Every structure is written in C-alpha cells, then in structure tokens.
Automatic annotation (TrEMBL):
GO biological process, one term: carbohydrate metabolic process
Organism superkingdom: Eukaryota
Organism: Favolaschia claudopus
Classification via InterPro entries: Beta_hexosaminidase_sua/sub, GH, GH20_Enzymes, Glyco_hydro_20_cat, Hex-like_dom2, HEX_bac_N
The protein's name in its UniProt record: beta-N-acetylhexosaminidase
UniProt catalytic activity: Hydrolysis of terminal non-reducing N-acetyl-D-hexosamine residues in N-acetyl-beta-D-hexosaminides
Enzyme active site: 339 (proton donor)
Lineage of producing organism: Eukaryota, Fungi, Dikarya, Basidiomycota, Agaricomycotina
Amino acid sequence: MKPTTVCMRIPAFVLFVAVLSVSAAFQPLIPSVASFTASDEQQPFILSPSTQIIVDSTFHASGSPSLESFAQTFRDDLVSITGFTTLSSVQVGSLSASLPSVIFLTLGATNHTYLSGVPTEEGYDFEISSQSYVIKGSGSLGAWWGTRTLLQQVALTAGSPNGISLAAGFGSDTPGWEVRGFMLDAGRHWYQPSFLADLCIYASFFKLQTFHLHASDNLWNQNIIPGPDWRRLYSAFRFRPSPGSPITELAPLLNETWSKDEFLALQNTCSAHGVTIVPEIDTPGHSLAISRWKPELSISGSPDHLNLSHPDTLPTIKAIWDEVLPWITANEVSIGADEYDPALADDYISFVNEMASYISSQTNNTKTIRVWGTNEPSTRLSIDTNVTIQHWDFPGDSIPVQLMSKGYRVINSEQGFLYLDGKTSDDGQFPWELVGDLMWSGAPGGGGWAPNVFSRTDGSNNTEPGNPLLRGAIMAIWNDWGNNATTPLEIYYQLARSFAVFAEKTWAGSGIRSTELSRDQFDSIYDTLNAAAPGQNLNRAVSAQPNNVVFQYVNVTQPITTSFESVGPPYTLTFTVKPSASPKKSQISVPLFDGSSILAPYDGGVIFAGVDSKLHMTQSQTLAFEDTTTHLLYPLPYTFLTDVPTRVEIHATQRYTYALIGGKTYWWTTELDIWGYYMKSANMSFAAPAGVVGGFGFEGELRDVELLVGA
C-alpha cells in the first residue's frame, strides 16, 4: 500500500522570530523552543497507553542513526516518563486520518539554519492536533531533538488532573550553534564506560550534542615534577591497546582503561541519543603517561612535556593515534596541544600542523582536529586555519576575535564562564557549578552569557552571535586533584544543573529570541525535568516508598540481597553494629554483582554493598566508605569497640555524608591540596550501598537496619 503524503500546516519560518499566542498552554522547556503558535480551533492531543508511534516509511532508514532507530529509543524514553508499559512497538508506515492518537516522525523540514546562516539537520517543525503529534525534522537528528521537546512537555504535564494533555498548535525550532557540549577530564579520574554513557544520555535530554572526552593527562606538583620522583604522580592513558600493539606499555593500569569494544559500545550509546564523542589525547604537554613509558622523549626537568625535537617523539605520537583512530566514529578529534613552552613556539606549531595533516591522511580526509587555544609567539609560522581552536584562557593565551579575524574557527570554552573542577582546597579557583549570575546576566551590558561572549567586562572582545567562524561552546569539568577528590556521582551532581543552563544558552543564546527562558522560568521547571530525564538514573532515585522507607531488617544473620543496588542522597541509613574481636584474615572471597567472585586482601568486612559504594567495618574498627569506581577507602574518624553494640545514623546529601554516633557528628572527608600546598579536608558524598545488607566477611552482629530516602 502506497503511503499517504503528510501535509503539515507549518508556515514559512523566519529564524528565531517567535510567535506565541496569548492563549497557548505551551510550557517553557529547557532549552526554550524558538516558535510555537497555539490553535484555538483544535482540542489538545491526549497521550495515552493506546497512542501509536509511527515512522514515515519514506524516511525511516534516513540518517545515521536512522529515523527509525531514534524512534525506537524515543519509545523507550516515553515509557520511562509515562509508565505506559503497554505502549505498542514503533511502526513504519504513513499518517492516516483514521488513527485517533498518533505520534508521527518524518523528515523534510526546510529553512533551518544556525545563526551563522549555515543550513542544519538539527532543526525540526512540529504540529499538534487532537489526533496527532507530528515531528518533522530537517534531518533525523532534528527529529530526535523534537522528541526531546515532546518528552519534556509530557514530563511537565504528567500528574495534571486533566491527564497528559498537550496544547494544539504548530511550532518550529533550531539551535543557534553547531557545537553545544561538555568536556570531562577522564585522564586524571577514572570513569567506567557505563557512567560516561549515562552522562551522554542525560545531556541529550537537554539537546547537548558533543561529549569532549579528555582521555589522557597527569597530576601536577611543582615540587615533584622537576625532581627524581616525578613517576609517582598519577598519570593515565585510557585507551587499552590491543594485544601485540606497539604502544602496549603506555597503559599499564589495564583496570582503568577502555577496551576497543567498550569504547565502540560507548560511542554507539551516545550516538543513539544524538551525542557525538570527540576524544582527546593531550600532547605534547600533559604527557607524563608517555614519559613514564619512554622517558627519553621528555624534556629534562619537565617530564610532562615531550621533546618535539627528539627523532622518536613524533613517530611515537603517530603510533598512538594509529592505534586509536580506528576506534573513533566522530569526524573530529582533539590533540590537546595546550600549555606548552612558548619558547618552543615553532616546534609546537610545526607539531600541530603535522598532526592535522597526518590524522587527515590516515582517515582518508574524514577527520579534522581541534587544539586548545595556546599562545604561540612565532614570527615565522602559524597554525593551519583548518584546525579549530578551542579557546579557554582570556587574555593569557588565545584572543578569539583576533583568531576569527585571521580565519580560524573557534569554540568557546572560556574558563571565566565555563570551567568547573572537582573539589579543590582553593575555594576561589572554580565554582561548584556554572555561576547563575554569570550565565543569566554576566555579559557586558547585563545580558546573559552565550557562545559569542568571551569577556564579562569588555564587549570588544566578544563577537556577533552569527559569526560564521564561531562554532559554539563547550563547558568543561576538570579533575586536577585526582581520583580521591570526588566520586563519579559527585561529578554528576556538579554537572546536572549546569548542563541544563548551558543547554539553554547554547541553543537559544541571550537577547536573540523573545522566547528565551528567564532565570525564574528555568528554576521553576528544572527540578521536574531533572527527575524525569529518561534512559539513565544518575540521581539513583527509587520509586516512591511508603513512609519513605526503602527497607527495614530487624536482625541480619546472613547477607540479604535487595532490589535497590544504590540509593542517592538525601537519605538516612540507621543500624546497630557490634564488631567481634576476631582473628585477622589475609584474603576474602568477594562476590560481584554479576554473580562471580574474586579473592581480595582482607581489611575487615563489608556490611553494606552497592554498585556505587560499599561500607566496610575495617580491621581497625572504623567504618570506611569505598568508591567502587576507584576502590579508594574513606574512613570515618571514629573507632568502634569490639563486642559492644553501637547505634549509627548516617545522613547524606549531594555535598556531604556524616554519621551520628553517641550524640556526636563524624564526617567522611578527603584530603586535598594544590600542588603540594594548602592542605584541606573536604566533605565526601556517597550513595547508599543498598544492594546487599550484611555484606560479606564481616564478623559480628548487625541489627535494626533502616534506610529512609529523602530524609
């Protein structure tokens, strides 16, 4: 049967000019939608378990991922938000007037361009009637962003006494910039691929589309770097070389690397949610991992810098990329190239240009490179203009308006607006999350930040939003202080709200559309959308429990497996524990969540275990939280008496975890410093280890256990 033609009543759309009907019941979303006109002639669209999702048979295979593939993921997300578990499978077909409740995905939307005027496949039109919700993308990715709009509408409408009712009308939407993303420093903090995938999925809900993955780096200490002990500084290269690879010895920490299959799966997951991973291998600076492998390639006294004049340095770096390039699906990679000695500017520029040419040639001209903006004061050489400059330090290094005047494409990562860092002992270095005052009103003249804003004080250092050489912006979170400063979930807590703010500003800009969100509008809907974001559970939320009780056990005589692997803060975990004065063991059999077990050194027993954390009663008779990603232990400054029952009440928020024992408060902390100075204790936050109660290896009694959520 020949599919019928879909006719949409979408008027010609002038970019970023919004037409909002006063009677529209269309709620603000994150990011804001460019245009919506309500229809007084149509009843609203009612979403129900009988609603069908249909993909236009003409375009179902179009795009990569395809429109149909995006639709399958959308269907799962819709079930997650609505609870409509009986929602039918995605169908391929046409839109028929006889169908009462249809979400229809198609392509063919036109007139969608970025602010620069460059056409984009990220735009979409949508039309809502009593019978159908039609999303028409300019490409499959545009249709995908349209499904994010629909999901957010549903999330903000669910729970209404009128059911899930979406106002009739038509709208159109396009992002302002091509690059809208985030960078995570995974070189100085280890992250499991599952966590990285969840970050992609969460970011996608707010229409961010680039994940810049900083995959090699090292800690830095000015007292250690120039001395003989520089090898003891933590450094890592995260791509696990294949067996027999010439770079095998570059990655000795195999348990802290991603295999090729794992990385391909990670990219596929992110791509299925509209997010592209742009990996970074940082050279010739930040290269202690390479120097540890081949110290002869380093600069004397600066082992984190590679000597570009050494005849083996460039072949070694090329060999590293030869290993990794076949893993990468993106059409762009970052070679880092920041904070190198400006006295070696000519060597630096020659290196960047050589690597740009090499990576292009090795990938049949399908991949280009990015570098961090670094001052290269050469009077003879300049970086090729086909290299994108990711600006980060103003005015110490790159000056964006000057770069663009010379023909360079620029991505805005200005640290004064867009840098975060894991916990540090310098409270004034970078904020915990993007600063609201800067993002909403910190630009010259009191306007909000946008990708065209590089300076908060000097408007002459900013550019026009539609500058064709301004590609967009990437916010960054660093881990300058290593694995012990944070857990992965603490990094998520820093990023969650910042992602949403950043998404609004990189999609809609500031002072461009009349439909841009105000700060109050954003604040009024963010918490609801954060809680509803589908496809992941980084909040470690649990379903509503009677009286907020997750579980209660009177007497735990053997390990109890629950249905809650991890519970996020805020929570209260209360129990009575009586450790016995037992002989010390050397090893213990540790069960894993996949059903297997391993032998591990014994340091007391585990009394609670989960996917994110474990709570140990150590041989020194204290409670220590373990971060199951890094396997670091964080002891409580309290010693329990053996053979004496002690009541413990643990409280946690996203910023701290503490125990009440005998009327006193004891905190779980970590020790931080800056380059060997400014030592300081910082609080740690842990998810409740709720998967196994009673754990393993613990000798003693555990009674009167209760976990309350939201308390």
